[in-house]
Amino acid sequence: MAQNTVSVLVPVAVAAPYSYAVPDGMRVAPGDIVDVPLGTRGVVGVVWDDPPDREIGHNRLRPISAKYDAPPLSREIRAFVDWVARYTMTTRGMVLRMVLRAPALQPEAPVSGVRLAGPAPARLTPARSRVLEVAADGMAWSKSGLAAAAGVGTSVVAGLVEAGTLHEVSMPAAPVARPPEVDFATPALNAEQKAAADVLRAMAADGGYAVALLDGITGSGKTEVYFEAVAEALRHGRQVLILIPEIALTTGFLERFAARFGTRPAEWHSEVGPRIRERTWRGVADGSARVVVGARSALFLPFAELGLIVVDEEHDLAYKQEDRVFYSARDMAVVRGHLAGFPVVLSSATPSIESRVNADAGRYTRLVLSDRYAEARLPEIAAIDMRRHPPERGRHLSPPLAAAVAATLAEGQQALLFLNRRGYAPLTLCRTCGHRFQCPNCSTWLVEHRFRGVLLCHHCGHSEKRPDHCPNCGDTESLVAVGPGVERLGEEVAARFPGARTILMSSDMIGGMERLREELVSIEKGEVDIVIGTQLVAKGHNFPYLTLVGVVDGDLGLAFGDLRAAERTFQLLSQVTGRAGRAGGASRALVQTFAPENPVIRAIVSGDREAFYASEIAARREAGLPPFGRLAGIVVSGPDRASAQGYANALRRAEPRTEKISVLGPAEAPLAVVRGRHRFRLLVHAPRSADIQGYLQAWLNAAPAPRGGVRVQVDIDPQSFL
Length: 722
Ligand code: ADP
Ligand code: ZN
Known about the structure:
By secondary structure, the chain is an alpha/beta fold. The chain has 19 helices and 31 strands. The strands form eight sheets. Strands 10-11-9-12-15-8-16 form a seven-stranded parallel sheet, sandwiched between helices. It has a six-stranded parallel sheet with strand order 17-27-26-18-25-24, with helices on both faces. Strands 2-1-4-3-5 form a five-stranded antiparallel sheet.
């Protein structure tokens, strides 16, 4: 009787669960995955903890249609969903949607196999003998596995089944990943590594909430060190999640994991097919998958007994999602650890200012690795002042950088030229009339991609054929490319170093992920002389032959001038220069810049990261900016400029006045139009102690409802101000 009404959260944009009747004979508990009617359709939902709505008469309640035989969502992840929704000011349903991305609702069908059971066949061929030899252990084999092990075709196995020698049996489906062996290959750690690993092991063994910031220069062995925490959590019977930005490209990581633990971990990212995803989801939920390595979305997997999260490259922007639910996977990983009571390891060569401040304040334990492992040495870094060493007209490599590339090639070593700009040129204009090619949907210039012969918008994907005459004045031969992209740099390199084996790496090249992975392997093997790449090549890779890194435009990131421009540029330049010299021997990094006196460039060149952190932290503290204060962005967008601006102004007028919290704007967003929607921004600046969500909620409740296609998006802790 007690159980006839429950609340069920459905994965659509709803703030609260709905009440449903439990049909006779069905028993459900919070966390159970069920099918419920919603409007005219049926959806998958989860029985939630909220008390059901007692006001609705039982005769008006719709019943749950079915309960799935799937592992229920734990109390821990239900609490996490509620917390993330409240913090990011998103509906709980939309956060649940991230948990139910690929739910395995049906138990996996057992696979059919064969086993030696009957009498020997009348006719015994050499192929059949080999099969019988392999199957002599009496174990169940899949047909194809047995055929492969015996080196015969599957028809031989089928023949033995027909003869009654092999019997068909059904066996449980193999787990999506084998359990790691914690002592498969334990590394010999140096003193500094050991000290850090000891602290991490103690945290993992203890199992309570704690955060460690593993702050070690590139190549210092951070991965080896946090693997020891992973091993310890596994020894204590817990599951582990390792988050990695760009995991789809980081195949080398999976092999390193296998070298340490004897088997590959389960993977979770956009390149994993739907079937493996479902199996991984179930393996995570039923506890058979012990370690998952994944992209930020893996944070919402329903682990049965999660006991450690590692966030590798914790400073990386890829952890911030700016779509539907705006959240930082690094910050929410710490929250998940806090809610469930387990440790979190944040690892980086260039920690975010937020994490560094948390460590300095004693909230996180900072573990420092200050040396590269073994013989490897950091590269010598120097700036090239482009005012004194200008490139020739129409070219982008200064004479000193070009000479350094030539010297590197002469020594048979590898050079990397880094330019964080996809395509051929960021702007195309007509020399005769000044016409510039702009995206029809966005307020951005179209980027020429010469390999594909198109002009492309990097924001909405709009593409058009590159015309051979100006659409404005009709002049032919008057269109010019302005500024360099990696494709144009590739042209220059081909002209300067015709004999070199050159590779161009950019996320938008034809061939997709598979080709990029193959290219990374060939760079690792030293089959390439010059690598030209965007930030794709800056992160995490180990290129043993690389001894020269040339940063073509060191000032690019500083140009944005937003709150995080200095930090971002420092991180990116540290990462990319840190690719050089990872296998020992002398190496160099050269940074082309028009502003060698800029503090970021100075910090990179002098290697004085502490000076950079000190000055950046002081500046943030002075201005009350994160993490010393809180920010929230509000983007108002509408189908036309007037409606967006009108609503943004109305919103501003509805603002509840307080002394502590200030609001800037509305101002037209730097990216004023995206996908045809006009955008205005407001920025809320509050002290650390303020309840910024409560304030925003009161404000939005007081404001008139947006109409006419106008939308309001709140971004707590914004990373992007565009
Ligand atoms: P980071 O993540 O700090 O950049 P890595 O963990 O990738 O550094 O280590 C850099 C290189 O040094 C890798 O090739 C790694 O295998 C090697 N290495 C680091 N520490 C050890 C160790 N204790 N024993 C063996 N190899 C190590
Ligand atoms: Zn566009």
